[in-house]
Amino acid sequence: MKYSFKFATLTLLLCANAFATPVYQPPGANLTYGSSSNNQSIMSSVANPAAGAAVLKREDNQYRAGLITIGGGYEVGNVSGLSNLIDSTKTKLNAQTIGATCDLNQPDAVIVACVNTNFVAPVNSLLGLLQKDGNGSVFFGGHVPVMPLVVSKNKWGGSFVLDANVSGIANGSVIKDNIADITTADVAAIKASGKYTPPTNDSTLLVKAAVTSELGLGFSRSILIREADTNTIGEMTADKLKSGELTAGVRLKYYQVKLANKAQRQQTSTGGSQSTLKASQTYTANSGVGLDVGGLWTSRRYRVGAWVSNLNKPSFKYSPVDLTGLGYTNAAIINQLSTTTTYEMKPQLQMEGAIFSESQNWVINGGLDVNAVPDAVGREFQWMTLSAAYATNSWWIPGARLGYRSNRAGSKLSYLTGGLTLFKALSLDAAVSTDKVTDNNGKSAPRSAMLNLNLQMTF
Predict the structure, then answer these.
(1) What is the pLDDT of residues 262-286, one digit of tens each?
(2) DSSP string computed for 346-395
(3) 188-214: buried (b, 16+ CB within 10 Å) or exposed (e) per residue?
(4) For residue 169, is it within any domain?
(5) Closest alpha carbon to 438 in 429, 430, 447
(6) Which H or E run includes 224?
(7) Quick check: 145 and 26 in contact, CB under 8 A?
(8) Whole-number Å distance between alpha carbons of 174 and 275
């Protein structure tokens, strides 16, 4: 009983579209910074919608554009040992006669108990482990060149942020169909063949794929400035006269979401699986509108903010899985696969904070998603992030950052993150999970990894 998780197949499911700021792949330097607002990375402007106007406390006007923003990654379940377990179970079913384990000269009731304990139960246990851990995802995303585009002007009273991006994900997971225990009516056939052969089984590999295109327009502006105590400021500059500033922002997003799903039914434990997965998929197209609102308090030495994404709960439909000709018999699985499912972008409250050095070159960032939300293929995410960074003002001295992020929901994976910024424009960030998986040869690899590249310009 062997399921083959082929990432090449999952990737092909997405090839009809290419390049959303998905919850599973924070863009650009946000992979290390978290969704914390900062002046060094343009990608912070696609997180808290109040972030764009914060730059005006230091400059009268500013224009920023993302020239290249791409990223991708993968995640697999805790599959260590599963392959060996699959092979050993298959060997036991195929190669070993049942008489070596169960005495076929015993009464029928004793034979039934022996077969159910030594053959049926291990198969069902394996199916349970496959449903729990036998899953994998590949994903990628990117922003249209020159996006996001941030235009900050004092005469407008704030900043406009225009963004266009696309992300894609494919996920394979197992739906188990337990093998029924044998009865005394099955003993005669077992005695005649000397083997136990599991009946036709409806356990299924379900592949879901989604491509999300997003066009967003946001506006933020200052709504409160607190002046410093003039009795103590001495020779402070006009910029430092502000002891704090509150900015607020709103962002409207148009989504086009294309969803596809496909089932591969496992027919028997020994006869292989029916191949129904194809490189070309028929996507169900949906559209919707999302609304984000947020606020950000910025001071000379610290920053705190919060925002809510997708306040209005946009939702999108998956079509039922096409079961034509697949031979399903389990009514529960038929109902599960043939029912229309909904992907809802649930509202999520996110909080951020940072502490700066006096020069603002050194910064410690923290972020927390207050609640979990699902992605387009049903995985849940609730990020907690912490990072420390040196944000350079030099074209020649690189900026650097290290961090940690943890998904408090779903897979509950944790990641070590890091990034570099070269020439104040080119950023490379990576995240590697602390959990690893081990193959049959004893070689290990991270259960998940992500890599982002961002090139931006400011003028």
Answers:
(1) 888 876 443 444 444 443 457 889 9
(2) --EEEEEEEEE-TTSSEEEEEEEESS-EE-TTS-EE-EEEEEEEE----S
(3) eebeeeebbebebbbbbbbbbbbbbbb
(4) yes
(5) 447
(6) strand 204-227
(7) no
(8) 15
Residues facing residue 205 across a β-bridge: 174, 264
Burial 407-445, CB ≥16 within 10 A → b, else e: beebbebbbebbbebeebeebbbbbbbebebeeeeeeee
Q: What is the CATH number of the domain that holds 380?
A: 2.40.160
Gap between the Cα atoms of 459 and 455, Å rounded? 14
Q: How many CB atoms lie within 10 A of CB 458?
A: 15
| Domain housing 21 | 7-86+131-188+198-458
Distance CA 109, CA 102 (A): 12
Give the residue-averaged pLDDT of 406-430.
95
Distances (CA, A) of 56 to 255, 347, 408: 30, 29, 35
Beta strands in 239-361 (DSSP E): 242-265, 284-298, 302-309, 315-318, 341-344, 348-356
How far is it, in rounded angstroms, from Cα 173 to Cα 207? 7
Number of compact structural domains in the chain: 1
Q: Which of 295, 341, 336 is nearest to 318 (CA)?
A: 341
Token representation of residue 382: 């609730």
What average pLDDT does the segment 60-89 reach? 84
Are 29 and 41 in contact by the 8 Å Cβ rule? The answer is yes
* 114 within some domain: no
Q: Please write the tens of the pLDDT for every residue from 283-322.
A: 889 999 999 999 999 988 899 999 999 999 999 999 888 8
**The length of the chain, given as a count of residues:** 459
Tokens of 26: 């924070």
Which among 426, 448, 428, 429 has a CA at the least distance from the CA of 437?
448
In tens, the pLDDT along 77-125 reads 988 777 777 777 777 666 557 878 888 899 999 999 999 998 899 889 9
pLDDT at residue 231 above 60? no
Tokens of 447: 């259960």
Question: CA-to-CA distance for 347 and 265, rounded, in angstroms?
Answer: 35
Q: Is residue 118 part of a domain?
A: no
Residue 341 within any structural domain of the chain? yes
The per-residue pLDDT for 15 is 39
For 128, which DSSP code?
H
